[in-house]
Amino acid sequence: MPRNDSEAVAYVGEAISRYGRDVKVVSGRHCYEDFIYNGTTRAVIDMSAMNRVGWDERRPAFVVEAGCENWSVYRALLNAFHRTLPAGSCYSVGAGGHITGGGYGLLSRLRGLVVDHLSAVDIVTWNASSNSAELHHVSASSASDDERDLFWALRGAGCGNFGVILRYYFDDLPEAPEFASIYTLSWDWASIDSAAFADLLAFYAEFVSDMPETEFSLLKLTHVSAGQLGMTVQAVSPEGATLLDHRADVERRYAEARTRFGAIVDHTPLRNPLGGHPGWTTAPVGNESVQHVTYLEALQTLNGSGPNQFGKYKSAYLNKAFPPDQVAAIHRWLRTTPHGVAESDMSQSLLQVDSYGGAVNRVASDATAVPQRDAIMKLQYQTYWLNASRPGEGRRAPYDVQADAHLGWINDFYREVYAEYGGTPDPARDPSGTVAGAYYNYPDSVLGTHAAGDVDHALWLYFLDNFRDNERNLVAVKRRWDPANVFHHAQSIPVV
Fold this sequence. Notes:
By secondary structure, this protein is of the alpha+beta class. The chain has helices spanning 5-19, 70-81, 95-100, 108-111, 145-154, 194-210, 243-262, 295-301, 324-333, 400-417, 455-463, 465-468, 474-481; strands at 23-26, 43-46, 53-56, 61-65, 120-127, 132-139, 164-170, 179-188, 215-222, 228-236, 291-294, 310-318, 350-355, 377-385. The protein folds into 2 domains: 50-176, 2-Layer Sandwich (Uridine Diphospho-n-acetylenolpyruvylglucosamine Reductase, domain 3), CATH 3.30.465.10; 179-429, Vanillyl-alcohol Oxidase, Chain A, domain 3 (3-Layer(aba) Sandwich). This is Berberine-like enzyme.
């Protein structure tokens, strides 16, 4: 657990010299797969002691160290500088992995991805020629092409691929909004047939395409066993807006949304909190009215990482509205309970559809490692379950029946939604230009791994032409900076 740069270099050098590729790095411990904690790991570089946030006079720039968690970053930037990052909502996610994987959240339509603001990175790499760890400060203005290429790769694909990131620098950051408002619309599953469901998804695509960039929405398509499904919207105040003007505009938009969605299916009061990431709260939020708060209070309200339990996630980007075959598949699987579990055990399972676009899409697809710059929606398939198994025994009998049921449900659900493209949201097999791959910060081993021999498919879905086809590509950067493939996991960038 390094506390400063010199310790980081020393510890990385010692660990790799002793254990080679069996060394992993952690920041906030939110990886969706077992890329760090698995049977091959013999040493862990834990960055949580390097957790400074503030202004670095030497650079000069704002600085966020890799061991920070989202909540501490938000609070420090807001209270000391009235600045913010367009980052994620789950409070305990670590900056080390979140930022380098792209970093998006409820302000991204207004301010873009976090990597769009990134100006430099401090990283410890491994020099295979000298068998030593080295500290580098890399940016778009670095003296060498190699360092500029590494900085480009770290803006979206740094997650355990090139070295140990110590800190991020931002020459400037957006001003934090003064005010925020939150509202929720909810509907009973009993009132929604297949036609109403199709209309709901079609209108949601129109809704996210037309909404102002100050708004961000989360459509939570919950399993039928939850009884209801719903949508939460956060609206922040534009620069210079007064509290009265902001409230009046949000109330107007809320009334319009209630009317337009209500024409499809009648609204009903939300009886229980909507689950999924983000949005784990202890009470219904913005239910039947708009909740007007400060920006800090909005961060607190939609700031949940959820209880400790088992979970599985899958992701996709959509550039257009849902095609009819996808709508039908989604409707069917949200009404399907897999064999081996009671229907009530599926009540936390859902497909969450986030609004996307806006400022995110004003950046070129090859400007950072994140290529998805035309999407209007971002999807996260989620399922959760809980049992009394001991740590590490969740896939053993008798608990394996429950785990297999949930994993089978979400994997088959996903496979059928994208059956037309071979079972994944593969744009290479989609002449309509509807799908645009998946999100690297939501890793999904089912898409492909080194062990299975199909990791290229997964990495193509995450990075598209930035993976190996463009002149500047991630494989070439990996080959230059980590030819010994020391920084390695199930979906790491390959050397060849």
